[in-house]
Specification:
Layout: H1 2-11, H2 24-65, H3 72-94, H4 109-144, H5 157-183
Length: 195
Amino acid sequence: MERAAEGAARSHRVPKSKFCGGNMIFSRMDALLRTLSHVGFVAASALLLIVGLLGAIDVVTTNLFFYPIRGMLELSGALLAVIVFLGLAEAQARGANIIIDIATQSMRPGLKRLSAVISLTIGFAFMALVALHTTKLALNAWAIRETALGAFSFPLAPFKAVASFGAWLATAEFGRQLVRQLMGIESNGEGKARD
């Protein structure tokens, strides 16, 4: 009976991760960031569908009934920023961004790794600056209760806050990939464009 309980306990143990010598904190953070970037991507995709449908409805109502949707231009502009920033982390994680590999395709593995570390460091620093500035813009929008100017007035602070979250998420994804490169951890298909 005790042996059966021991065997069951052993079978439910979490296997040691290859990440950071078995440190589960890093592997869980890795998984959390991947999950968050995927959720951001799904949200951005849903918002893109909504903007597309609203745009189509606006075109139909404007051309057939001479009655456009009030504030559609302002709303679609605000949502576009949210869509772009929420999709950045997943695009980086999948390697779906533009990659010019003419210079790196003939590099030796050590030089390729160094190139990846340098590019991820630059990307991390750039996205951190973007995230910092979008956060300042979002906080300022909350402080002054900024609203969209146009036919339909709505608060811009929530849109700016979500865009800021997306920028920080992209920064975290660059950081996650940088740590993995520095530790020599295989990416299991991440970072390579999928056909």
